[in-house]
What does this fold into?
Amino acid sequence: MDKNLAGTLIEKAIEQLQFSYAPYSNFKVGAALLAKNGTIYGGCNIENASYSPTNCAERTAFFKAVSEGIKEFEAICVVGGKDGILTGYASPCGVCRQVMMEFCDPETFQIILATSKEQYEIFTLEEILPLGFGQKNLT
Ligand code: THU
It folds into this structure.
């Protein structure tokens, strides 16, 4: 992944932190999902007083895109931290990894974990979800 593109996605993910609705955990998460057509979908976590309806930032971004007919993706950047302060990587939860598995090629889809434009690491979906179960298993 080109450094400029990574920087653009990191900036967009950080921007999303302002929309995070996290009154229960105060853990703010932002995501920027790059579709193959070049569009970037932002997402934030959205919590709920009943806790379990909480939606992670990654899934917010995916569901925004899919709900607009976009189903091909290249990469996602995720940032997050207590009170929106980025002290470490916010790694996608298992449910979000499984949603990525539904729409992305595990060998090529890139997950950028960042604390700033200068500090980031890139993983493939296969690296963070080894032996993942997907559509291919059902054919
Ligand atoms: N969260 C995300 O948005 N993405 C993840 O992958 C991990 C967790 C959110 C959910 C909840 O609002 C808060 O972080 C604390 O779990």
The radius of gyration is 14 Å. DSSP finds four helices and five strands in the chain. Residues 3-16 form the longest helix (14 residues). The beta strands are 27-35, 40-44, 73-82, 110-114, 120-124.
